[in-house]
Design a protein that fits this description.
- The protein is mainly alpha-helical.
- Among the domains are: 52 residues, Rubrerythrin, domain 2 (Single Sheet), CATH 2.20.28; 206 residues, Citrate Synthase, domain 1 (Orthogonal Bundle).
- It is 51% helix and 7% strand.
- The protein contains 18 helices and six strands.
- The radius of gyration is 23 Å and the shape is globular.
- Bound molecules: carboxymethyl coenzyme *A.
- Carboxymethyl coenzyme *A binds next to helix 17.
- Carboxymethyl coenzyme *A (CMC) binds next to helix 17.
């Protein structure tokens, strides 16, 4: 307990006064502890969507949404994207420190040794319709890992080997879900390749030809994975923690996180962004008229890839990706209609009173979709890429929760608004 944890806030209600403890984080985020409010004052708090509710104390990721700051374990996202690899960042999130060269080699080796899937996974993929979206296929496959790796004790250290298994195998699962959807043979991992390179080979290679990993594509993919690696208590991470709080195992918890990520208001937005840009191009619509629709409260259209619950400033991930997007498009020599429309939409929105007043800026999904498209990743796979990137963050959060002596099963309250007790009646 820091000295600041001795502060209290007072609540007056119905003629009584209650002292509520105040907790102050290392970046001065200040929270009123209402955990005893019900037992002492008979009150609960109401906060739909948990927009102002801290669900835990965490040392993994810090966001200042007003200033547009994102740090993993204290390191700025911009520095990590520029100087680290995805596996180094995964190590950082999981262990709290960047790896030494020896630790990095050992971690990379262990990830590389677990990339193969049990052959029986083939039948799992083959049992799915070929037109299935790869997100539910991935969620099912991650959940199925509980069946293949049974018996590890639940707890802080269950994470160790299963963490390695998950991070190693998720590119294989992702690539196989894609191969199944296009009716091509599954490819086995090649462990001499980098994490991103191996994924690209399993995704785009075929057994008939050699596959050369393009270093531009490989680097861009690694940066995308880094930028997605954690984002504190977002919807999917909170889901992972909530499922894990019942002592469900790591695979079951992560599988639930994959499902939560799929929604278009969360990780599914990257797919929706590119669909929006394509639709604008196909209809020959102007960016101006699309923005007008997005502003109209009677029209369900939203400017996808804009706005964020936490960022009320430019999402720092979007800033990195905007630069990377131009770089990729230029180096691959692509004439990207989507990038052109995206930039126009951004320019209009950033100067429009509606967006300015509501502090709506591009979020990570605005440019990530354009990069994925330029890298040749099919639209249906965009959210799968997000899940691959977010995996170390989910695992780090799940492990932190397990190690926290204050953690309890998650169980929110409600304000009941339904019928009062009534006499049972039937007309039969
Ligand atoms: N286009 C048009 N209007 C918007 C948008 C948008 N993209 N986002 C928010 N607004 C308006 C909204 O209509 C509301 O206006 P009013 O106050 O007049 O009713 C106001 O801005 C506040 O919006 P909200 O829906 O109450 O904000 P929220 O914090 O509940 O939702 C959000 C955040 C990200 C779900 C929302 O901004 C949105 O739907 N954006 C588009 C989807 C998207 O890009 N999602 C990816 C999020 S980043 C990736 C991730 O971490 O998951």
């Amino acid at each position: 307990m820091s000295s600041q944890d001795t502060k209290t806030a007072q609540l007056s209600y119905d003629g009584n006064s209650y002292d509520l403890p105040v907790h102050v984080g290392t970046e001065n985020e200040t929270a009123v502890d209402i955990s005893k409010l019900r037992s002492e004052a008979g009150l609960i708090t109401l906060d739909p969507g948990y927009g102002n509710t801290g669900s835990c104390k965490s040392s993994i990721t810090y966001i200042d949404g007003d200033k547009g700051i994102l740090r993993y374990r204290g390191y700025a996202i911009e520095d990590l994207a520029k100087n680290s690899t995805f596996l180094e960042v995964a190590y950082l999130l999981l262990n709290g420190e960047l790896p030494t060269p020896e630790e990095n080699t050992a971690f990379t080796d262990s990830i590389t040794q677990h990339t193969m899937l049990n052959e029986n996974f083939r039948s799992l993929f083959l049992s799915m319709p070929t037109n299935a979206h790869p997100m539910p296929v991935m969620s099912a496959a991650v959940s199925a890992m509980s069946c293949f790796y049974q018996g590890d004790e639940y707890g802080e250290h269950e994470g160790d080997i299963n963490t390695i298994r998950l991070i190693s195998k998720i590119p294989t699962l992702a690539a196989w879900s894609y191969k199944h959807s296009i009716g091509q043979p599954f490819l086995y991992p090649k462990n001499h390749l980098s994490y991103a390179g191996n994924f690209l080979k399993m995704m785009f290679g075929n057994p008939c030809e050699e596959f050369e990993v393009d270093p531009v594509v490989e680097k861009a993919l690694d940066i995308l994975l880094i930028l997605h690696a954690d984002h504190e208590q977002n919807c999917s991470t909170s889901t992972v923690r909530m499922v894990g709080s019942s002592h469900a195992n790591l695979f079951a918890s992560i599988s639930a996180g994959v499902s939560a990520l799929w929604g278009p208001l969360h990780g599914g937005a990257n797919q929706k962004v590119i669909e929006m840009l394509n639709a604008i191009a196909d209809r020959g619509e102007t960016a101006e008229s699309f923005v007008e629709k997005a502003k109209n409260p009677d029209d369900p259209t939203r400017l996808m890839g804009f706005g964020h619950r936490v960022y009320k400033n430019y999402d720092p991930r979007a800033a990195v990706l905007k630069g990377a997007c131009h770089d990729v498009v230029e180096r691959l020599g692509i004439d990207s209609k989507q990038l052109e429309i995206g930039m126009k939409l951004e320019e209009i929105a950033l100067n429009d009173e509606y967006f300015v007043k509501r502090k709506l800026f591009p979020n990570v999904d605005f440019y990530s979709g354009i990069i994925y498209k330029s890298l040749g990743i099919p639209v249906d796979m965009f959210t799968v890429m997000f899940a691959m990137g977010r995996l170390p963050g989910w695992i780090a959060q799940w492990r932190e929760m397990n190690a926290d002596p204050a953690a309890r099963i998650d169980r929110p309250r409600q304000v009941y608004m339904g019928a009062n007790e009534r006499k049972y009646f039937t007309s039969k």
